[in-house]
Amino acid sequence: MIQHSVLGQAGSGKSTFIDQKFSDSRHISFSVGSLLRKMLGQSGIADSQHNTNAWESANPLVYCTYEKLCLLSDSLGVPLISDGFPRNGSQVTTGMSILRNLPATVGEVQLHLHLLDIPEEEQIRRIEERQGMDEYQLKRIKRSRMDFEEVISKMQIELSKTNSLGNIAIQFNWWSSKDGGFELLNVS
Fold it and tell me: pTM to 2 decimals?
């Protein structure tokens, strides 16, 4: 099974990256933010992402959906592309546990992490341009930067564990955003 996880801070261009790099490929798309905004926003539980408790309580739904999409990806023989999952350290731990516990019939899991790191000034400019700037957006920017660093750190720990697991291969792909496009900087 092949999985591409597109990770980055809020406003880093994850959805744009997916549109540019994977639009012509046959794949399964998993956008946690879109899923939760549609489900929780419709019910009135989450109001414009401001209710963080509603988002955290949605993790069981996210994990269940992720596991089912991994199995579907394997059975169809098409990659799974996730937009922003995992987005924090807890989701890294649970996501890797899900991958480790997939049925033996799944075989090797190739996990390609596409890391979109942007300077904070650029992040602020993009978010302000799209959504305006207020206290919530400033907190969101700070939180997304801390979460991104935590995800990288936790994934590096998981990479050291994969040597003993054998069925999960992790590749880090570092990208820069330039002039509306993306340039691959490093692969490890």
Answer: 0.87
